[in-house]
Amino acid sequence: MPSAPTRPARLVLTRRGRLARSILVLAAVIAVAIALVLGIRAISDGSDPAGSSTTGGAPTTSTAPSDGGGPSDAGGAEETPTPETDPELTGDEEAAEPGPGLRTTRSGIVRSDTEGDGTWTVPQPVPPAGEPAGTVHRYALRVEGGIGIAPEEAAQEVAAILADERGWASVHDVSFEQVADPDQAEFTISLASPPTVDELCLPAQTHGIWSCRIGPEVALNSDRWVHMTPTYDDVAEYRAYMVNHEVGHFLGHGHESCGGEGLAAPVMMQQSKGLQGCRPNAWPTSDGS
GO MF terms on file (predicted)? Predict the structure, then answer.
């Protein structure tokens, strides 16, 4: 007669075994909770919990280089905008009111509440003073409405700056011709209110204070056009600096530094930020180098 099948031995945990099992289960629960918290935190601050890095989707353009406040690669490479000066102004709080609707930061930069109306006026081209020489760069000028700047006067001033013998024409054997149709222009100079310039300069952060060059767009802040910065005491010279600096980026120049105490600052130096011991200088042929 066959014997009855034996049941497998039943595993009975001792009190110590049950305690060890409970500790292991609790440890696993804690580990899972920590992993979830770290994952949620990584997602909320934009980091990659796996340790890899990603780049944002900021737009890029392919024109002149700049290696200062708006870094970029060599000419023809992808780049980010080239602000007129370093836009990082954290802690630069408003300290005084120089006049109605105006305020001054601790570093002495005058700001206004000017907001353009979003419309643009393209003034009639200023006739060139002589026959075009060398490589001709055609540009359009447009002035935003509501900023209190006469488009015709701005056009005359910009044309005079670009035609000056101290300017880029003498450095690169180039000349500049204003055209009435922006579609026929190689680059556009936009004189606009601070909020509009901030939009035109994205992804660079110009903080309502600075100007920039991004691709074929030269965006000039109307506050700087009217009130300049404390590094200058002549508004006409500062305007020449603004135009020559940003057009210099368009021509392929990056930022430079002061060459020595008492020398004229290179026009591609971020002179709005400070002069580093140099003298203010608005012209590329007078950089003291």
Answer: metallopeptidase activity
